[in-house]
Amino acid sequence: MLDNPVHVFALVGALGVGSQWLAVRLHLPAIVFMLAAGVLAGPVTGLLDPSASFGELFRPIVAVAVALILFEGGFTLNFHELKDSAPAVKRLCTVGALLAWALFAAAAHLVAGLSWETSAVFGGILVITGPTVVIPLLRQARLAPRPASILRWEAIVNDPVGALLAVLAFEVVAALAGAEGGIGAAAWHLVLGIAVASAVGYAAGKVLVAGFRGGWVPEYMKAPVLIAVVLGVYASTDTVLHESGLLAVTVMGVVMANARLPALEELQRFKEHVTVLLVSGVFVLLAADLDPEMLALLDWRAALFVAAVMLIARPLAVMTVLAGTNASMKERAFIGWMAPRGVVAVAVSGFFGGRLTELGIADGFMLAPLAFAVVTVTVVVHGFTIRPLARATGLISTERPGVLVLGGSRWTVGLARAFKAAEVPVLIADRNWQRIAPARFAEIPTWYGELLSEAAEHSIDIGAYGYLVAATDNDAYNALVCTDFGPEMGRDAVFQIGRHEATEGHRHMPASLGGRTLLGSGADFRELEKRMIAGWTFTRTRLTEEYGWETYLSDRAAEAETVALIRGKQVLFFEKASKLQPRADDIVLAFGPPKPEGAKRDDPSDGAGQAAGSAKDDDAERV
User: Fold this and answer.
1) C-alpha span between 306 and 303 (Å, rounded)
2) Whole-angstrom Cα distance, residue 206 to residue 229?
3) Strands, E, within 529-575: which ranges?
4) What string of DSSP letters covers 134-152?
């Protein structure tokens, strides 16, 4: 067993981050690998024993990590997003969360045999589904837009809501357990605790907002100051009124999330990085700290409890609150089935389990093993059933991932027309009304406004677009948008025209910023517009076994450039040093000069493809 805390931290970091990396590579939920790593390092091999390694510091370490995790949860709860979301999401995250809390608590008491005190806390924890588990499964399944949107927003909003319900339930239990003057004293202690914690959290959030907005804190110090204040708020309120610190930091996060801070995006990214480290570390520590004898207590009642949560409580809550909404019966049934729990639920349950035991609640220690059971079963079962069930219910998305084009111009209108004719969803966005006028006249879907604004987040279903092409006349703005959308869409799915990369002796765009350079020539906005004025057009050609890539290249103009391949539901863009290998049945989208007058249009393809290609050429010439 490792007994040096430094060695323990190093191993936990390697296991946690390594599990996250492996999950990304294999396109599986990270929690599966973190659970396996923690159990193997702890109960199975005995390499890790956090309680023995850290002694009395183990619980405070977990408590501080959970405080930062709960602050991050509150920091994602923007009321404007909840207000503008679909009626189904609003019901699930308000009345639905309360109903689910009651049903989960009842199942914990009646089926698992937990006390009402432990059940009330556990019920709130089980409301948390968690975007870190749900969103990867949604990407894997490629659901239809409406059920995917409902599940995504429920996971995002219920992450802090479930944690807040668990905190409130624990406050009630702690007040009752510590009261010496009966119910009245317990109620007074609870009200005082909630009031003080809420006031301190609210005040701290407002002070930070004022400081950040007024320029009192330099940019490079905002993230460190934020973390220091979170820890200070947690420690101060928890010292004055025991266990109220978690509520205080959650309230503080909610206040800051709704303050519309200019630097909010940067702060959110930083705290996301910190939270990934904390969540993975806490999860591995708690898994390694599980007592094999405790796991042996998971008997048939635990199995029945997991079944009751998955098959009765969750479906009943969803079917009840979604009645009367625009969600179909199939969608309601699917949403009622899908509720995988994640690492936050385990981290919070491990923390509250220890605190309940300290309060004298005899079965508080059962929270951690039961939470692991629920998380393990739901992640595995839902992970393997989401796509077959979506296919069986007809909820698989039948559309290709769309292309979001930034900037209205002759070239982008021609590109959008080509994609539209190939049945690829496309949207042109621009903050200049006049620039998108040609796209509107061409009946191309458009969005007018700043793509980086909050309004764009609520008006555009970003999930429907798998690719971004930034094609304005401002290289720096293109890079900024690509940098912003890269983490969400993937760095390999964001492209910009004419990217000026850093070269020796020249200071242009750093390699870490911006998107990939579209087109092999790297032509910029001016060059593409010149080509459009000169009569260049977009053509589409379907390759066949008889008419392959080499033959196609020999037939077309030497100056022509391949923009993208449409392969099934994929759009594969060509860039500098592209190694794409076109094959039969691929549709080649190219941009080339007009053919000499009287020359034969020889973009051979099958009959449908040839007709579509010729029609597209004619359309493009009229742009």
Assistant:
1) 5
2) 12
3) 537-542, 561-567, 570-573
4) HHHHHHHHTB-HHHHHHHH
Q: Which of 301, 371, 381 is nearest to 337 (CA)?
A: 381
What tokens appear for 358 in the block?
Answer: 């300290």
φ, ψ for residue 536, nearest 5 deg: -65, 145
**Per residue in 7-31, pLDDT tens?**
888 888 888 888 878 876 676 667 6
Give this prediction's pTM: 0.61
CA angle 276/279/282 to nearest 5° reads: 140
* Helix 222-240 with 245-257: angle, nearest 10 deg: 140
The model's pLDDT over 88-101, given as tens digits with 9 standing for 90+, comes to 888 888 888 889 99
> Across the strands, what pairs with 506?
503
Chain centre to alpha carbon of residue 411:
32
Adjacent-strand bridge partners of 427: 404
In order of 1, 47, 150, 154, the CA distances from 72 in angstroms are: 33, 31, 21, 16
416: Cβ contacts below 8 Å, ≥ 6 apart? 403, 405, 426, 428, 439, 442, 444
Pairing relationship of beta strands 426-430 and 516-517 according to DSSP bridges: unpaired
Tell me: the pLDDT tens digits for 373-427? 888 888 888 878 888 888 888 877 656 678 899 988 998 999 999 988 888 888 9
User: For residues 492 and 240, which has the higher predicted lDDT (pLDDT)?
Assistant: 492
CB 424 within 8 A of CB 400: yes
The answer to whether 138 and 152 are in contact (CB under 8 A) is yes
Distance (Å, whole) CA 564 – CA 557: 17
Residue type, 517: T
- CA-closest candidate to residue 248, choices 240, 239, 237: 237
Query: DSSP labels for 391-407?
Result: HHTT-B--SPPEEEEES
CA-nearest of 354, 257, 379, 491 to 56 is 354
Among 222, 339, 212, which residue's Cα sits nearest to residue 270?
222
Our measurement of the distance from residue 456's CA atom to the centroid of its chain's CA atoms, rounded to an integer in Å, reads 17
β-sheet bridge partners, residue 575: 518
Instruction: Please report, for residues 43, 89, 155, 548, the alpha-carbon distance to residue 339 in angstroms, rounded to integers and kept in the order given.
Output: 28, 14, 9, 47
Tell me the CATH number of domain 402-621, given options 3.90.550.10, 3.40.50.720, 1.10.3720.10, 3.20.20.70: 3.40.50.720
Closest by CA position to 168, among listed 137, 145, 195, 199 = 195
- The whole-number pLDDT of residue 546 equals 86
**What is the tens place of the pLDDT at every residue in 533-544?**
988 899 888 888
Single out the residue of 471, 430, 441 nearest to residue 619, CA to CA.
441
Instruction: Return the SS3 of 489.
Output: helix
Q: Is the dihedral of CA 591, 597, 599, 600 positive or negative?
A: positive
Find out whether 373 and 395 touch, Cβ atoms under 8 Å: no
Boundaries of every domain in the chain: 55-260+298-359+370-392, 402-621
SS3 state at 294: helix
Q: With contact defined as beta carbons under 8 Å apart, do 96 and 293 qualify? A: no
Q: How many CB atoms lie within 10 A of CB 312?
A: 14
- The two three-digit tokens of residue 404, written as one number: 């979001």
Higher pLDDT, 57 or 242: 57
Q: Is residue 409 within 8 Å of 429, Cβ to Cβ?
A: no
The residue assigned the tokens 């301190």 is 200
